[in-house]
Amino acid sequence: MASIAEYYAGKSVLITGATGFMGKVLVEKLLRSCPDVDTLYLLVRPKAGQSMQERVKDMMNCKLFDRVRVDNPDFHQKIVPISSELMQPGLAISAEDVEKLTTCINVVFHCAATIRFDEPLKHALQLNVIATQQLLALARRMAKLEAFIHISTAYANCNRRHIDEVIYPPPVEPKRLIDSLDWMDDSMVRDLTPRLIGDRPNTYTYTKALAEYVVQQESGTLNIGIIRPSIVGASWQEPFPGWIDNFNGPSGVFIAAGKGILRTMRANNDAVADLIPVDVVINLTLAAGWYTAVHKPKSVLVYNCTTGGINPFHWGEIEHHVMSTFKRNPLEQAFRRPNANITSNYLINQYWILVSHKFPALIYDLYLRLSGQKPQMMRIFNRLHKAIGLLEYFSSQDWEWNSENISMLMAQLSPEDRKTFNFDVRQLNWPEYIENYCIGTKKYVLNEDMSDIPAARQHLKKLRNIRYTFNTLLLVFIWRVFIARSQMARNIWYFVVSLCFKFLSYFKASSTLTA
């Protein structure tokens, strides 16, 4: 049987969402580990004043492709961008490009989706469901297609506590929903959204569940696999540890904690933080593409790509390692010293938001106003609270995912392929991974130089001294205003101080006797 790299040799591959986080890693891995792949066709749309070609050029110039550049300086010749727009009928692919794709494509990787949790339902439905329908219609016309791999999410069925590797019945028939929303205006859809999504937390998980059902129902005779990753994080090993290029999900939370902006977060310390490294997801995706094409399973195979049931790590442990890493490798120009805490108690969380977030933000914005600058800290905290609020559902509870298909696929790989396309999360060392993740946010998201760490440490010392000075002045203020003016308050104060001295003396004497 051909190895994974041998299978992809000479193949033409179509990738949607190639300029996104996972799509970039997929393109890089194919070029590096399957160097004989023929052509990668990327569906790309113009964006933010950039043409399709400019976006692909920017992608290929990023650090992620450094290893590929060394091995094959002309790798860009294997990449062919195709103009496309997921919001338009027929994906806005020209007739000439449709002709080209339907005659040469062997494998399709559908990574494109909106990952915004608060996306309006109509928009999420168009990007996650209708676009998938249209891509499947195009795939059914591809004469040489051998595998169609759809990237979903492990949280598509998060309204269930135990999730098997099956496609569950949808919350509503997709076609009926699409037809119903078509004539409604945005305000009407917005009002109906909470009732439609029911016990799911957002439109993202809701539409991804619908998309899975669409893939199953409209696949025809295609060989299809579905990958369900949990919370996708920085790379574990490939192309190098800790690569990340965005603020999404835990990355933004880690940065906010490292900058000293985030001081409290509502989550369950004992809940499993089901992070999955992006290179694990991509290795599994390529292996699933190989297996789907070579073995042609009789039904759609679903792969729950998670860590919680195999190598669990908890939110409380993540908090400890994130704080530890950023104290040793601080971010530049931190707002405060890193010192975030996780609590599951709503009232305690609200108290710390008031004391550690809103009050300092008001003071800092007042300072900015007085110095003639535009206030910004309260706006930053409001955005942070919104982002954390969207994550709260996933950081406060546990799920159980079946992973039999993952184990089956791993058993099908040769020893060499298991090494080259490693998705065995049992080997993942969590403390090391979290440290590399945090350093990755510093190097690749914030573009900070590791040689500037000594200066960043000096800045943290300066912030510590400012905090000590402020606390001392606050204590003096409280003494002068509240204690020094009241005989009863002074008596209580002296009693507490003398009690502390007696305790310290007793502790010192006990230590001496023990020694």
TrEMBL record:
Subcellular locations according to the entry: Peroxisome membrane
Record-level GO cellular component terms: peroxisomal membrane
SUPFAM superfamilies in UniProt: NAD(P)-binding Rossmann-fold domains (SSF51735)
One Pfam entry name: Sterile
Mode of membrane association: Single-pass membrane protein
GO biological process: lipid biosynthetic process; long-chain fatty-acyl-CoA metabolic process
Transmembrane intervals: 468-486, 492-509
Domain of life: Eukaryota
The protein's Enzyme Commission number: 1.2.1.84
Any one GO molecular function term: alcohol-forming very long-chain fatty acyl-CoA reductase activity
Reactions accelerated catalytically: 16-methylheptadecanoyl-CoA + 2 NADPH + 2 H(+) = 16-methylheptadecan-1-ol + 2 NADP(+) + CoA; hexadecanoyl-CoA + 2 NADPH + 2 H(+) = hexadecan-1-ol + 2 NADP(+) + CoA; (9Z,12Z)-octadecadienoyl-CoA + 2 NADPH + 2 H(+) = (9Z,12Z)-octadecadien-1-ol + 2 NADP(+) + CoA; 18-methylnonadecanoyl-CoA + 2 NADPH + 2 H(+) = 18-methylnonadecan-1-ol + 2 NADP(+) + CoA
Enzyme kind, highest EC tier: oxidoreductase
Any coiled-coil regions, as ranges: none
Leader sequence residues: none
Domain Fatty acyl-CoA reductase C-terminal: 357-448
UniProt domain Thioester reductase (TE): residue ranges: 15-284
Keywords: Lipid biosynthesis, Lipid metabolism, Membrane, NADP, Oxidoreductase, Peroxisome, Transmembrane, Transmembrane helix
Similarity comment: family membership: Belongs to the fatty acyl-CoA reductase family.
PANTHER family per the UniProt record, alphabetical: FATTY ACYL-COA REDUCTASE 2 (PTHR11011:SF120), MALE STERILITY PROTEIN 2-RELATED (PTHR11011)
Annotated function: Catalyzes the reduction of saturated and unsaturated C16 or C18 fatty acyl-CoA to fatty alcohols. It plays an essential role in the production of ether lipids/plasmalogens which synthesis requires fatty alcohols. In parallel, it is also required for wax monoesters production since fatty alcohols also constitute a substrate for their synthesis.
Protein name per its UniProtKB record: Fatty acyl-CoA reductase
Species per Swiss-Prot/TrEMBL record: Albula goreensis
